[in-house]
UniProtKB/TrEMBL annotation:
This is Salicylate hydroxylase. PANTHER family: MONOOXYGENASE, PUTATIVE (AFU_ORTHOLOGUE AFUA_6G14510)-RELATED. SUPFAM superfamilies: FAD/NAD(P)-binding domain (SSF51905). It is an enzyme of class 1 (oxidoreductase). It comes from uncultured Cytophagales bacterium. Pfam families: FAD_binding_3. Its EC number is 1.14.13.1. InterPro entries: FAD-bd, FAD-dep_Monooxygenase_BioMet, FAD/NAD-bd_sf. Keywords: Monooxygenase, Oxidoreductase. The lineage of its organism: Bacteria, Pseudomonadati, Bacteroidota, Sphingobacteriia, Sphingobacteriales. The keyword Metal-binding does not apply. One of its GO terms (molecular function) is FAD binding.
């Protein structure tokens, strides 16, 4: 049996660990943080991944911890509905901490190694050595890299693959608030010139919200009061959600670009944000990392852990959908924050007239997991 290491205990690495454990395949997972966890925000999981989680018996737990999204609603900044689309497929929104808890609680504890930051990898044809920042090292045969968009391992293997900034800043938070019935099971996205505000109930008690504006990367952190001021022209509910939020997380939106790339190098393979990070406009980055884990497990087993065949086959299975998500999400984000008033006017009103079939086609493609059966 090959000695397998997973680097990173985020959504991708933990799903990979669950998939391997379900097939009784041994592994060690190394996470740099002293404990597994996630930022205080929500995350949407599409039907495709909920169906995949059925295969490793996590569906019921996730379903119970999240709330179903039944409608996606485009509104004006005054929350006047411009377009409403039924989400026929079982997507849920769940708190990230809850997701990580469910993904980690069934993994054998002795397989998870915390406080283990990989600083370097030495690789030859048959053997790999992981070097940790605490001065220790570990040998292994296959390495699965799931260490996120800033992946130091990807930078070591593929230094020319750079982060692409969208010149947009996103703020997120969770607010304790019981929304009116209308907003239950609805994902709301309201647009104004250069600004967006999105919210969705996590359950009957809490609401997850996001605010997006144009802005250069690396800017100073702002306060809740400043953000409320920035959204003063929006519906009072929007301001209330920001003002009463339990937290405020600020990020620069970025991805790894939409150009072709290789996802593996000999006996090292990369998954999730570390190789195809996407902007969050389609709410798909985590979902794609989860699909990676199922595809990679399947290819490792099908090809008897021969990395020369399994790793290219894994990329072949996953490349088209992952790159579709990266490119479509990028375009959507650019369209939403168009610089000129005319373009903004056109894109705002286009939402009313785009045939429903266009959204359905995209939704069907993203949720298609037949390629994994
Ligand atoms: C604002 C926003 C909203 C989003 N909304 C959604 C959504 O609704 N739905 C969705 O599917 N996706 C969403 N995403 C994307 C999603 O969060 C990511 O795609 C997902 O977290 C990627 O998972 P990952 O495991 O690949 O990487 P990460 O979650 O980044 O995990 C990487 C892990 O590796 C560890 N690590 C890093 N370096 C090392 C090292 N050297 N050694 C050891 N460990 C290391 C880190 O500590 C971390 O635990 C959103 C993203 C953003 C920014």
């Amino acid at each position: 049996m090959k000695n397998i290491a997973i680097i990173g205990g985020g959504i991708g690495g933990l799903t990979m660990a669950n998939c391997l454990q379900a097939k009784r395949i041994d592994f060690k997972l190394y996470e740099q943080a002293p404990q597994l966890g996630e930022v205080g925000a929500g995350i949407g999981l599409s039907k495709s991944v909920m169906d995949l989680f059925r295969k490793i018996n996590l569906y019921e737990e996730l379903e119970a911890a999240g709330s179903f999204i039944k409608y996606a609603c485009m509104t004006s900044k005054h929350l006047k509905v411009r377009r409403e689309l039924p989400v026929k497929l079982d997507s849920i929104c769940i708190h990230r901490a809850k997701l990580i808890d469910i993904l980690s609680k069934h993994i054998d504890k002795e397989k998870i190694h915390l406080n283990k930051k990989v600083s370097k990898i030495a690789q030859d044809e048959n053997r790999i050595t992981l070097f940790f920042s605490d001065g220790t090292s570990a040998p292994c045969d296959l390495v699965i890299v799931a260490d996120g968009i800033h992946s130091p391992i990807r930078k070591q293997l593929f230094p020319s693959l750079n982060i692409r900034y969208a010149n947009q800043i996103i703020w997120r938070g969770v607010t304790k608030l019981r929304l009116d019935n209308f907003y239950q099971n609805r994902f709301i996205e309201s647009w104004d010139e250069y600004k967006r505000f999105l919210f969705v109930p996590l359950n009957r008690e809490y609401v997850f919200w996001l605010a997006v504006q144009n802005g250069a990367p690396g800017g100073a952190k702002i306060t809740k009061a400043d953000l409320v001021k920035g959204y003063s022209g929006f519906h009072p509910l929007v301001q209330q959600l920001i003002r009463d939020s339990e937290n405020l997380i600020q990020n620069d939106l970025a991805d790894l670009g939409g150009d072709d790339r290789i996802w593996y190098k000999e006996n090292i393979v990369i998954m999730g944000d570390a190789i195809h990070a996407t902007t969050p406009n389609l709410a798909q980055g985590g979902c794609q990392a989860i699909e990676d884990a199922f595809a990679l497990t399947r290819m490792l087993i099908t090809h008897d852990f021969n990395h020369n065949v399994a790793f290219p086959a894994y990329q072949q299975l996953r490349n088209k959908k992952a790159m579709y998500v990266v490119n479509t999400s990028w375009k959507l984000g650019q369209m939403a924050h168009e610089g000129s008033k005319i373009k903004y006017f056109l894109s705002k009103h286009a939402w009313r007239f785009i045939p429903g079939g266009v959204f359905k086609k995209s939704e069907r493609f993203i949720n298609d997991i037949k390629y994994l059966s």
